[in-house]
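Sample entry was shown:
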Amino acid sequence: MRTAALLAALLAVSGVACGERKCSPANCDGCCDSLGRCLEGGSPSECGTGGDACRVCRSGEVCLSGACAVHPPDGGLAKGCGPGTAQPCANGCCTAFETGGICLQGDSDSNCGGGGNLCRTCGPGATCGTLPDGGRDCIHSSSVRIGDPCRTDDDCRGLGGRYICKLTVTSGSASYPGGYCTRRCSGPADCAAPGDDAFCVQIPPEYGESDIICLDRCSETDSCRIPGYACYDIQGLGSGCWISPPPGVVPSDKVGKPCTLDVDCRNPPPDGFCIGEKRDGGAAVSWQGGYCSAPCTLHVKCGDAGLCVSFGQTAACLARCSAPLKGQGSCRQGYVCRPAFKEDGGIAAGACLPPCQASGCSAGFSCQPSGYCCNQLQPPTCY
C-alpha cells in the first residue's frame, strides 16, 4: 500500500498520467513546461503557443497570443510599433509597423528580431540568436553549402555574401529541383568559403539563366545531388553541378559529320556551323569533307558524341574519340584523335581534328608521320 501511495504521489507531482504522451508541438496548442506538461500558455509566467517551451515574460510585458509583448503605454494597440512610435521596441521586434503592431521580445524562432525591426520567422535549420553587434536575427547553421536544397533565400543565409536560393532560372522557363543554395558572384573569391569547393560561372543565356552564380564543384568521386542535377564540364572553369537535363537546349547530333553549308549542321542546334574543307596548294587537305560544329560552353550541347573544346577566347564542339595519340581511332577518314585537354583525374580526352600535315604545328614542335606535333623532349610531348 505504501508503495502504491508513493507511486501515485510521484505521478501527481510530475503531472503525467500513465500512458500520457510527453508534451510536444504534435499534441499541445499551448506551451510545454519543464515537466513535460501542456499548459494554456496565456499568462506572463507561462507564455507560449504551438507546443514551444513556456517562457517567463519580463517585467512590464504581457502574454499576447502566446508571445511576450510590451504593452503599449496607453493600454491599447493604436499607436503602431517601431522607432519613433509610442512603442519604440528597442529591445524587441514588431509584428507590424502600422496601427495594431505589437512589440515582442524577439527571441523566439517564430518571432525573431531586435531594434524595433519587423519580427521574422526562422526557416529550416535556423534558430533565433544574438548577433555580434548585440542584435537578434535568425542564425543558420554554418553547415549550409553551395548546392544545398532550399525553399527561401533565408535557408541559404549561412553562406553569407550575396546568398540566394535559386528556385527557377532567370527566364522562368525551368526550375532548380528542390532549390539550389548559392551566391551571386563576380569572381572566384566570391565563391570561397570553408567547407565549400565552388566556382563562379555565367551559364550561357541560351539555357535561360542570366545570373552569375557559384556552382558546387563536382568530379567522378564527388557527385551532385540526384535526381535533378548532373556534373557538367564547363569549359575553362571546371566541373559543376547544374540542372539535369539542362533547359532550353537540344544537344547536337551532327558534331563531326561532313558538311558543305551551315544549314547542314543545324536543328539541332540552331546555331550549328560548318567548317569548310580547305586545301593547301591543292595538296594537304584540312577539315576534309567539311566538319559540323557549334559554339558551346557545356559539353552537353555537343551531344553524346561530342565535347566542348576551348580555342583561345571561344569554344566549339568537336567529335569525341577515345584513343588520343593513337591515330585515326574512331574518327572519320582524314582525321586523327588528338588530345584536347584533361578531364577530372588527369585522364586525357580526345577530339577528332585534322592531322598536323594539314594544320601545322606551333613553335618548338615538328610534324610527325603519325599526324601529331611533337617536341624534342624525352619522352616527347605530342598533341
User: Anything to note?
Assistant: The first strand starts at residue 31 and ends at 32. Residues 153-243 form one domain. The longest helix spans residues 2-14.
